[in-house]
Design goal:
This protein is mainly α and 301 residues long. The chain has helices at 14-36, 64-100, 105-120, 131-137, 140-160, 165-178, 201-281, 289-300, and strands spanning 7-8, 43-46, 53-57, 181-186, 189-194, 284-285. The protein is rod-shaped, with a radius of gyration of 56 Å.
């Protein structure tokens, strides 16, 4: 049965309808008791040897036959009243529960779809470039020069820096010039080692400082190219960070706007629920024409 069939502008409150249903239940029970005790014969009881008889049951008279039909009609009608009012009350309770949980599913679905789409479009920070990326962007000549300078600076540094072979040989030469002889005991013998430079000290010094100067020049040029790489990496990092910051700020603003929009949806739903609950509370349970006579009957009892 359609919910609208239960309700109208005029009618009963749920409390009144429930009251009538309870009255109808009691009235129907009385009629049922009448029908249960129907007997179509008279019953008398007597004791053998005595003249008197005691009537146990009068039985129905012809006029009672009409009452039987009336009882059936009453029971049927009262049960109809009970069924109708109980269903109407149940439907009103269902509508009240529905009003309390009502949501604008269409708006919510649209909002959810846009939210998921926005989540999938969340900005991702671009990867920073590396030294290899910068080198890959250079020309073949630039890369060859960089690698050559790196190899040259490393080679010269390895041999002329402290503990390098050439550096150690220079230091050793200066030490031998200052100490041209060394004496070592070897059992019963005494061995004397004499040292004599085979290259003029000034030539060794000139070569050593020439190598040092060359290594510094090569290293300076290499450092210049390394700075180009560092600057390129830092510039790219700044660019990537700024691009990400702007994209994330825009995305976050859109998320905030969606959140505010959802709050509006919730506020609208709350207002609708309040209105729906009020409307349901004010619904009147109609009294169908067929049941009106039974309401009047209950009022007369």
């Amino acid at each position: 049965m359609d919910s609208k069939s239960f309700f109208g502008d005029k009618g009963l409150s749920s409390t009144s309808a429930n009251h009538y249903a309870n009255l109808a239940k009691e009235a129907a029970r009385r009629q049922q008791n009448f029908l249960t005790n129907i007997r179509f014969y008279r019953t008398e009881m007597s004791v053998i040897g005595m003249q008197d008889r005691e009537v146990c049951n009068e039985g129905c008279c012809p006029n009672d036959l009409n009452r039987i039909q009336r009882s059936l009609e009453l029971i049927s009608g009262l049960n109809s009243l009970i069924a109708f009012f109980r269903e109407a009350i149940k439907e009103k309770e269902r509508l009240a529960a529905e009003a309390l949980t009502w949501e604008n599913k269409e708006k919510r679905a649209d909002h959810e779809a846009r939210y998921l789409e926005l989540q999938s479009a969340k900005p991702v920070r671009e990867a920073y470039i590396t030294e290899s990326d910068v080198l890959a962007s250079w020309s073949v000549g630039e890369r060859e020069k960089y690698l050559s300078l790196e190899a040259e600076a490393s080679t010269y540094g390895k041999y002329i820096h402290e503990d390098g072979c050439i550096s150690n040989a220079r230091v050793d030469l200066l030490s031998k010039i200052n100490n041209p002889k060394t004496i070592k005991e070897n059992g019963r013998d005494t061995i004397v080692y004499s040292y004599e430079p085979t290259v003029d000290t000034s030539l060794v010094e000139e070569m050593y400082f020439k190598f040092q100067k060359h290594q510094r020049e090569v290293q300076a040029e290499l450092n210049g190219m390394k700075k180009r790489i560092t600057d390129a990496i830092e510039a790219h990092k700044v660019s990537v960070d700024e691009k990400y910051r702007l994209a994330y700020a825009k995305w976050n603003e859109e998320v905030s706007a969606l959140t505010r929009e959802f709050q509006v949806i919730q506020e609208e739903e709350s207002a609708v629920r309040i209105k729906m609950s009020s409307d349901v509370k004010n619904l009147k349970i109609v009294v169908p024409k067929r049941i009106e006579q039974f309401v009047l009957y209950l009022n007369e009892q």
